[in-house]
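re: that complex we talked abt at group meeting.

here r the seqs, copy pasted straight from the sheet so there may be weird spacing, ignore it
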Amino acid sequence: MTTFLQKTSNKDFFIFSFFLFFLSVIPTFSLSAQEEATDEDAFYIKKIHDAALTKGECHLWLRYLTKEIGARLSGSPQAAAAVEYTYQMLGNLSLDSVWLQPVMVPHWVRGETEVIRIATSAMGSVDLDALALGNSVGTGKQGISAEVVEVKNFEELKQLGSAIQGKIVFFNRAFDPTQLNTFAAYGGAVDQRGNGPSEAAKYGAIGVLVRSMASGLDDIPHTGGLRYKDGIEKIPAVAISTNNAELLSSLLKQGPVKVFMKTDCQTLEDKLSFNVIGEIKGSEKPEEIILIGGHLDSWDVGEGAHDDGTGCVQSMDVLQILKHLDYKPKRTIRCVLFMNEENGLRGGREYGEEAKRKGEFHLAAMESDRGGFTPRGFTVDGEKEVFAKKFPLMRPWLSLLEPYGLRIKKGGGGADISPLKKQNTLLIGFEPDSQRYFNYHHTHADVFEAVDKRELELGVAAMTSLVFLIDKYGLD
Amino acid sequence: MTTFLQKTSNKDFFIFSFFLFFLSVIPTFSLSAQEEATDEDAFYIKKIHDAALTKGECHLWLRYLTKEIGARLSGSPQAAAAVEYTYQMLGNLSLDSVWLQPVMVPHWVRGETEVIRIATSAMGSVDLDALALGNSVGTGKQGISAEVVEVKNFEELKQLGSAIQGKIVFFNRAFDPTQLNTFAAYGGAVDQRGNGPSEAAKYGAIGVLVRSMASGLDDIPHTGGLRYKDGIEKIPAVAISTNNAELLSSLLKQGPVKVFMKTDCQTLEDKLSFNVIGEIKGSEKPEEIILIGGHLDSWDVGEGAHDDGTGCVQSMDVLQILKHLDYKPKRTIRCVLFMNEENGLRGGREYGEEAKRKGEFHLAAMESDRGGFTPRGFTVDGEKEVFAKKFPLMRPWLSLLEPYGLRIKKGGGGADISPLKKQNTLLIGFEPDSQRYFNYHHTHADVFEAVDKRELELGVAAMTSLVFLIDKYGLD
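got the structure back, here u go
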């Protein structure tokens, strides 16, 4: 590792290469504000990696969470089982405290039937690969039937105006494949799913079909949450597979298409559930909390493996690895498995509110909720002043993380930890490779087998390494 | 992209971060020797990426190569079909020349039977998940039966000495999971497969079992080539799955284990086959060839998807993308699909020899033979003087490649292009993420479905970008 410290005769060129993201963010930066990263740190980060790759328990935990428990929608018996299981597993780690934080969660259920049938002169009757969107109302027992109108965005919808009346709107804007990061492509399309139903209802639509939020073409429908706007009629909405979206679009080019929709979704009464929390108390500054977490709930299809079983078991394994290495943190390291990220964010909100009530201070909060793929680094967020002050203090660590292919750049933290932003917390999003995430996200395909053990474990190593550095050096 | 060129007030720190690998390799380096990378280049590299992600044909070609043709061992009808198919596909690209280069290849066949049966008092008779190693002799019709002796390395074998006589040796050294790059773990274990049979035969062993060259524990046996040493008896050798290796090892701790082996492998007469080649002639320096390639043959199980269907279709797609962009190269860009990498390297050798006979000069040769996963960069190799002179000239390009997560470092080029090393060629190995490669390598699991379309296409984009830079700036 001593070669890291060698100097080179040509400094100017090196500046081009690594800190592209930082350059535009922070004009100045003082090395003296921060102890320099040491060879000792490099040695310890190697130890963390070795332990994560040989003594990790995340893969076994994930197997149970996915194969034995399965999909864990808020309010479901499986969500309750996941609370119980992870509470027990954290309890086995000899932590200083493990507890459950109560939170009332929404209880949406898909129901039995999900039929989306198109009738065309060309092909006769075809059942589409479909999943009702989360939070959607059902169609009623008789179902609904109407002509389909395809649009790519809300502007087209507006221009059609009254022509939408009594129709079923089909939102069919695909991911932009030229976005390198698939989350950027998702961000460019997901308004159709989230807001499309209320936007369509404004003009008198009676139902909505949405092209699945997916990177490619296949037969897999992707569910996910919609948000009805107050004061606008709630109409049923369903995602169809990207292949079916292409089919429907091509049929619509030939002539009118009628669709029959029948779903039984309903929203039941709120249910009591829990965030699951465990921590190692800090030895010097226990009042400074470093949070790591993921969300324990998932949608009700597949097994909630990459979303977000992996984030939960990785966060648990960070504590397990620190205990295994007999690391005594200066600060409090707390693992939080949030409930209800998918359709309400109640767990994250309740956590943030209680932290405020109790006057807790979270120095940093890191969420893993982008899948269990090979780690590429971290994205960092925070209130303007917090970010400006703390982000530069992470720079000396980059030389320690770079050999593991890890970068740190500005970007989102995570939904569950977002309420902590206003409490002067530095938010950190763990960033794995994004290419395959939207093959699985919110689908029947998001199962244990889609997760690679080494990729998962390397995520634990990356997360633990950054937690170690924050704990050791602080952010002051 | 202009932010790349901004200066920063603290140069010293930046030096730590990115060029760790370079620092120890090249003590000095002169920027003036090379035109600086420009914003224009950044724009063109973005164009290349957009085209690869929207106009690529690699995924369709791979589907045919894997699903319609399948495994393509040298000398097999499938290998011949792959030659024909890729020759036709290259023929469709309006290249300046497409041709076949004849080469005689070994013709090993697995045969019908493959039984590896252990008999123990504890478990009775168990058939192991096994695949004969490539190039192995068969056991004869009666099979062989003997007690198993487990060793971890050749040193242990030597110490056992005459105790090996008449036994079946079981090489059971696992991958080192703490190696970040799985190819390093492979490199640390593969002597058992390549040289183990002859090493064991030296001491009178009659057969060999080898723990599969795999990153994790599963039921999938991995075949791969062995090399018999001249003058030592050829004994049959078989790979067993890592789960079975663990089972066998635990049984051996309880007492002696006998194994029955029966395989029908044989080596038939050499067969005529071909390297498949297509090129775009350079407009200014046609005599400087930039080669891109992969190997068309595969082992005889699975579909040869990641090894190395992906490398072939990526190399073909580099030409297709350049044609699509109407790029007129200064230098000759040549795609070579090599035959017989897996069990002979005859294609690579013949290519190198003919290049020498013809006095051709390959400025650079790039091979893609590490799977079709998310690109991480390139490894570069060459004769000492060639490397010392040319490698530094790539540095100004790093700022262009870094936004795509690509690095360039010292490392191997590729088996097929290795004969060009002595011809003053700079060898370049395309380097994708390595974590999942040894889940599939040489197995029934190496199928089309194991390849992600975007990951594959991003590889094409990375390869094309570097080819573009070499073509534009040369390496002088």
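couple things i noticed - Chain B has two domains: 27-107+269-473, 111-264. The two ends of chain B are 26 Å apart (CA to CA).
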